[in-house]
Amino acid sequence: MFAIPGICALMIFILARPQEFIPLLQRVPFLHLFTALAVLGWVIDVRLRRLQPLPVPTLPWVIAFLLWAFIGIAVVAPEKIIERGIELAILFALYGTLAHGVQKFRTFQIVAGTLVTTCLFIAFVCFHQGVSPKQCIAGEYRIGTIDGEPDGRVCETVENCMGPEAEPGKEYRCEHAGLFGTYSVEERVRYRGELQDPNEVALCISAGALSLLIAFALRRRNPLNVLLCAAGVTLVILTVLATKSRGGMVSAMLVPGVYLLRRYRIKGAIVAGSLAVAAIALGGRSGANADVSTQLRYEAWASGLDMFKENPIFGVGAGLFSDHHYLTAHNSLVLTLAELGLVGMMLYVTIIYLTFKTLYIGLTTLAVVPGTAAVRVWGMALMASMSGIVFQSNTLSFAYHSVLWIFLGLVGAWYSAIKHHKPDFEVKFGWRDVSGIVVGCLAFVFLILPVFLKYKGEY
């Protein structure tokens, strides 16, 4: 399968960002190179008839969503069209090659294994960061983060960073300094690139490692494999706690929660809810910082609603929310509404809806089919991951995040693998589905969000 090496390398370079801390890798644009290799590999596999060019259910809606985003940029910010166009093209290549370049469960496991390994690497770096000594970080402080570099001086408080050795004009913070130039923010561990936000780190490793490790343990139940998977799960949970992300902890608990809910129904939901509450009480942020963060989030939502009212058709342009407000949207629905208008938000919701419907139809259809245990194990893992992603996307600007698009692609790959073995498998999308999405989106935009913001005193 010629597409697989390019797909796996693309995931590694997008998530782990080795090109940012290995100088030798900075000489070549590997991100663009592996994108091209993944697409070229898919074309070769199709020409050699190793793959069938069968579209997954979300494909037309993904094309419509990304095309709408591209058109919107061309209309409202033409000077950004090349930059945003490349970003959207990489997202489509990542999703498209995953969804259509993996059509057997053997190759699906290779891709899943690559994702798990990458996420465990990220979790290890962040965990190591959390237990490392604090150092003085010199840079520019912004709300919730700081841009700078550790200067090597060990500290206990920020006062230790002041004095004759401090650089004039620099702001200092005392944070945990880890591997590859990483450091914490407000003592919350984080990574690099797209994962500089502790909340996004927690979501990435919960979705990309926790649920898939459970699937690998269920697939091969020999003691060594189960022990290794349990060690990986422990590392992920400890790292999520170190991020102090309340949403991340709930997302992590949603992984076993989905399994419990499917098997034990109401009893499972009660147990899962209790675990989530315990996790938040154990490690989530509280006090003034958490309250301020929540209030700023509501303020960003109100600004997003104002952006939509000023630009209801195309929005302010993909990736341009922060040009109109000093924070990100902190909600994927608000983000797409503000940046892409009502049509863009509806297309985004349609993609998410169809992704869950694909998993639900697949799991219920194959529940009574002999010999489909492996399919159902991976389906449940993807359901757990997507549940966590969608839950936490209510407080994150996640619509264009590579972690989301990797999982949209993996669900597409799961569908393609089922279709390869069971050609009559179909996921229908009719007017009833469309009507529900339209009504739900209109209710959110014109009723739920304004009323909620008014109740919170932000609108």
Please supply descriptive tags for the structure shown above.
single chain, 459 residues, mainly alpha, 2 domains, three-stranded antiparallel sheet, 14 helices, globular
Written overview of the protein:
The chain is mainly α and 459 residues long. It folds into two domains: 55-128 and 193-455, no CATH class; 133-177, no CATH class. It has helices spanning 3-15, 30-47, 59-76, 81-101, 105-131, 198-219, 223-243, 246-264, 266-283, 288-310, 332-366, 373-392, 402-421, 431-455, and strands at residues 134-142, 145-154, 171-176. It has a three-stranded antiparallel β-sheet with strand order 2-1-3.
**Mean pLDDT reading:** 88
* Fraction in beta strands: 5-15%
Helix content: 55-70%
Distance between the termini: 54 Å
Return residue spans where pLDDT drops below 50 for at least 5 consecutive residues.
Answer: none
What is the SS-derived class? mainly alpha
Number of domains: 2
Number of helices: 14
Number of strands: 3
Spatial shape: globular
Rg, rounded, reads: 22 Å
H/E element sequence:
HHHHHEEEHHHHHHHHH
Multimerization status: single chain
Question: Strands of the biggest beta sheet: in what spatial order?
Answer: 2-1-3
Largest sheet, described in full? 3 strands, antiparallel
